[in-house]
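Hi W., the 2-aminohexanedioic acid complex you wanted:
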Amino acid sequence: MVEVKTKKLANFINGEWIDVEKTAPVINPATGETILDVPLSDSASVNKAVEAAKSAQKEWALVPAPQRAEVLYRVGYILKERKEELAQLLTMENGKVIEEARGEVQEGIDMAFYMAGEGRRLFGQTTPAELKDKFAMSVRAPIGVVGIITPWNFPIAIATWKSFPAIVAGNAVVWKPATETPIMAYELARVFEEAGLPKGVINVVFGSGTEVGNAMVNHDDIRVISFTGSNEVGRNIAAECGRQLKKVSLEMGGKNAVIVMEDADLDLAVEGILWSAFGTSGQRCTACSRVIVHENVKTALEERLLAAMEKLTIGNGLDTSNRVGPIINKPGIEKIKKYIEIGKGEGAKLLAGGYELTDGDLANGNYFAPTLFTDATASMRIAQEEIFGPVVSLIPVKSFEEAIEVNNGVTFGLSSSIFTRDVNRVFKAQRDLDTGIVYVNAGTTGAEIHLPFGGTKGTGNGHRDSGIQALDVYTEWKSVYVDFSGKLQRAQIDVE
Ligand code: UN1
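Structure:
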């Protein structure tokens, strides 16, 4: 098993590791043990990081993009080499089971190679000009210093979705990782260092949202904020960035549903629901927390789900026999408990789970039993609000049309899925499901990095992570006209 080499992390600013006095403990959610201490920085550290980023960015922007990409290729190879070690550290700080942690590191590796490829593309457009002897094109220009604020649930993958496109496009980054999961940030910074990224191009400032996050949002020289996290915080960031005319990209969760039609392969649907509802203990933005089921197969689905849930093994994610790991922290447990009471109060029927697990080895960690409600209605709070835990509610419906309506009847719009064998319904569903991601005959999780990630309505503000669409967040479009006629040609006027 991998060992944690340091007892205290430091900020990474201008290529140097800078100690911060004030710290908080980082707790392993599976065991309750303190792993190490994370700095709680203040705005002075943010100012230093921005200064370093600002000066580094000027030179970085002049490095040809294919050479910038070389650094990302090296990052990809180092991540690949260190995959198992990083996955184990990730499980320790985040709790997700080791197989999923490996998958998350793989997502970072994929993103490195994919974005490195963009170093030789970063496509703009050439177009004809209106006038003779005139050339017109649009190019992507870096923006400058970008601020990224990342969550604890995908501490390395989401950081790569944001930092890699920013860097390949010629920006410098100030990054505030979640204080619950700082080890992945520390390790990724070390990987960048080893890969030869010039100092100051990425800077990591550990600390709280109120101190570090606010200082970033309010810093004049940070021209873009990319945030993944809660809806409440995201809305505040957007309001502040709006006031400052600062570009902002937000991803703020979902209330994702799996639709099971009467013609579905029920065993496959059960597997899809299990994986996307209870994988990562339901702590994915894309996690399934509603199952919209056709009334004709409701009882059959309930029976099969209950039987499958009984086999779920819960415990420390480093033990490969466990399929469901812990909840990130005690407030997470409390929030889930609160929703269990809300669900019962609303009249949903609790079929399984609904309680914290505290027996034996589980006593020191934060574990919650996989939970199934049934006979929920679309408007109940448990069917509307993000719980971020292993809780799923079955909502019976009478038709395909009603299923689509229920799916779309929430304020979020991240991911949705339908299980059916009817090809006409498949195509109608992919057209009518009002989410940024749609799955057919698969659960609601499992996005691939070369497609845009994000959602409609309350999930975001129209931007996307990953995919080439991420480049739109970290670049400005510049339209360039070159007149080689040797005389003044007036657009829209001197046309023959
Ligand atoms: C998240 O839920 O915040 O699609 C990210 C997925 C993963 C990423 C999830 N590839 O479930």
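The radius of gyration is 24 Å.

W.
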